[in-house]
Write a structure and sequence with these properties.
It is a single chain. The chain has four helices and four strands. With about 180 residues, it is an alpha+beta fold. Among the domains are: about 35 residues; about 90 residues, General secretion pathway protein M, EpsM (Gyrase A, domain 2), CATH 3.30.1360.100. The protein has a four-stranded antiparallel β-sheet, with helices on one face. It is elongated.
């Protein structure tokens, strides 16, 4: 079979030209594949090194854990007593105590400070009243509530008229003790 040449178009137009960058594209593709292979090989090498370092660390930790004494640190008795006291203080019925106190307060009495005693079921109250009679009525209202076991007035004093311009003229202190369940 004789060799035939492809006939050239009469106008000299070639609608399917060969790309000029074929060699460069092929070379870049080959370089990309080689670079990706090297990156994967390096990643695998780093993962193997990491696994070896982790196993060595775990071995050292196991050896250290066996050689260290496993005694518990000594707890001071004072710390235990303090913790017990704090826990007991949290278990007090503070909300019902303060609600019962609030129920006894009327317009003739102002409570300035309530100081709980955490070792007992007691509250120390500092306040002001319109008069000595108002203070006595406040004490009677507290004693009338069955929730309080003891109501003890500690002090009562009349302030000079200019000493309490916004407050009440009678200053008092008392201690109330909650009836334990």
């Amino acid at each position: 079979m004789p060799f035939r040449m492809k006939p050239k178009p009469a106008l000299g137009l070639d609608f399917a030209p060969k790309p000029r960058w074929r060699r460069a594209t092929l070379a870049l593709l080959v370089l990309g594949v080689i670079g990706s292979g090297l990156a994967l090989w390096q990643r695998q090498d780093l993962l193997e090194r990491r696994a070896a370092a982790l196993s060595q660390l775990e071995t050292q930790q196991r050896i250290t854990a066996r050689t260290q004494p496993s005694r518990a640190p000594a707890v001071r008795p004072e710390a235990t007593d303090e913790a017990d006291r704090l826990v007991a203080g949290l278990q007090r019925p503070w909300e019902p105590m303060l609600n019962a106190l609030q129920a006894a307060i009327k317009d003739d009495v102002v409570v300035n400070r309530v100081q709980p005693e955490t070792d007992a079921f007691r509250l120390r109250i500092v306040g002001q009243a319109d008069s000595s009679q108002a203070f006595v009525e406040f004490v009677q209202r507290l004693r009338g509530n069955a929730a309080w076991r003891a109501v003890e007035p500690l002090s009562e004093a009349r302030q000079p008229d200019n000493a309490a311009p916004d407050g009440k003229p009678v200053v008092f202190q008392l201690a109330v003790e909650w009836r334990r369940p």
